[in-house]
Amino acid sequence: MKLEGKVALVTGASRGIGRACAVEMAREGADVAVNYRTHAGEAEEVAGLVRGLGRRALVLQGDVADRKRDREMVEAAVGHFGRLDVLVANAAYSIRKPFIQLEEPEMAEALAVTFWGVFHSCQFAARHMVERGAGGNIIVVTSPHAWLPLKNSVPYNSAKAAVNQMTLTIANELAKHRIRVNLVEPGWTDTPGERQYSTEEELIEGGRRLPLGRLARPEDIAHGVVYLASDDASYVTASNLRIDGGFVLPRPEL
Asked: Is 156 a catalytic residue?
C-alpha cells in the first residue's frame, strides 16, 4: 500500500472530491481525519468507509475559513493519531453570478473559504510538520478557473488564481524541510457541487464533448492525490497535476 502508516487530514471531505480522497487514501493504508462543514451524516459515512478499510478515522467539524478552528483541527488530528503526514486542502466555495450582480459578502465568502481556508490549514499543518522534522506532504486542490477566465465566476476564479501562486511559494519555502507541496487541478468533475448548477442531461452532454468522452469522477482526482502523497512522487514538489480528460485542450468546434 502506497500510504501505509501515514496520517492525512482532508478538508471538505464529506462529499465529492474530498470524500473520494479520504476513502482512496485509506484504501492505500492511511489513517484519515475527515473534515466537514455542514454535512455531518455524510462525514460520518466517510469515516465508516475509512474504518471499513481497516484504518482509523477522526471526524472534525469546522469551517476552514475560521482560522482558530483550522488550528484546532490540526491539533486534534495530531493529538488523536500522534502526528500529521499529509494535508489535502480541498475545501472551497463557489458562487456563479454575473460580475455586475455580485454583492461584496458573496465575494468575501468565496475568498474566505477558497483562499484563506487554504492559507490557514496549510500554515498550521506546515508548522506541525516543520516542528516534527520528518518532512510531509501538502496537496492543494485547485481548478482551471485559476487561469481560465470563465464567465460568472469572478469570486472562484480570483480565489483559485491566488491559491495557485500561494501554493507554489509555499513549496519554495518548505522544500528545505522536506515538505513537498503540490497542486492538483481537476477539470469538469461530476460532484454534488457541480450538480447545483447543471442538470443530468447537461453533465452527460458536457462529458461527451470532452476529448476523453466523459466528466471526471471524484475517484480520478483521488488517484492523483494518492500519487502525490506517496513515495512514488518523492522528487515532485511545486507541480500542478492536471486531471481533466483534456478539458483545457483547444477545441475549435466549440
From this structure: yes
